[in-house]
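Proteins fold reproducibly. Next comes a concrete instance:

***
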Amino acid sequence: MSDAAPHGTGGLAERLGIFARTFPRETPEEVAAAVARAGYALGHWNFAAVGRSTLADDVGRAQVAGVRRAFDGAGVAIPSVSATFNVIHPDPERRAAQTARAVRLIGLVPELGAEVVTLCSGTRDPDDMWRAHPGNLAEDAWTDLRRTMDALLEAASEAGVRLGIEPEPGNVVRDARTAARLLAELGDDAPVGIVLDPANLLTPETISRQSEILAEAVDLLGPRVVGVQAKDVAASGAAAAGTGLLDYPAVLAQLARLPPVPLIVQDASEHDAARVRYDLLRWHADHKSRPGWTHHA
């Protein structure tokens, strides 16, 4: 496969990134080099990529500076940093401790050159922050989400970054409508936006309504989307883009209505990363060549 981008990619190559933890290594230099070798311009950073905790409680400023130097040296930018934890964990003491760690990490993010800190909106499941729980639908879950968000929003405002909430089917913010509710309650001036992953909004049972469901999400969330993620829908769960049920040229046509935000690859193996990049660029060129295509961003 050629490393060259297909013709007609329209600047997507510069906005295309991948989770840094796709390439677990001992040093940031090795991670950054692997991201660059796979052809990506961006790397979504998670300290777990180098065996540290996601919330960076075992990371000092010197190590943060080292990550920035490594990625700058490899010519890879860091658009966003993961600060995922269970923000409505049923144990309030654990929740408070992790919130404090996330606040500290948010304060460090500008040193990495990133503008967005990604979050999980949480679940009442005590063991897995991505697993659904009946308690997620209760109003007290929403209340706890808002309470935790207040501290994180204050930290983001002080750091000059935005928080990115990703709708996840197993979380409190589970779809485009609950994401729109959160944005409306927090207000237009809050330093928060949405990380939109089309695969999170669909299942094998709803894939036939792909265009309708994604169109609604773009209509509802539009200018508040701060990042997009790329994976696929499969009967076995999440899969690498191009190995499941999504019609990716159609997905990219919907996403073209959004602002030109980073598109970050998730759930691709290290050995499949270059293929996913090439195919995303190819699909992007394909949808632009379809009759009647118009860029709305």
Summary: The domain at 12-288 is CATH 3.20.20.150 (TIM Barrel). The chain is about 40% helix and 15% strand. The chain has one domain: 12-288. The beta strands are 16-19, 42-44, 80-82, 116-119, 162-165, 192-196, 225-230, 232-234, 237-239, 263-265.
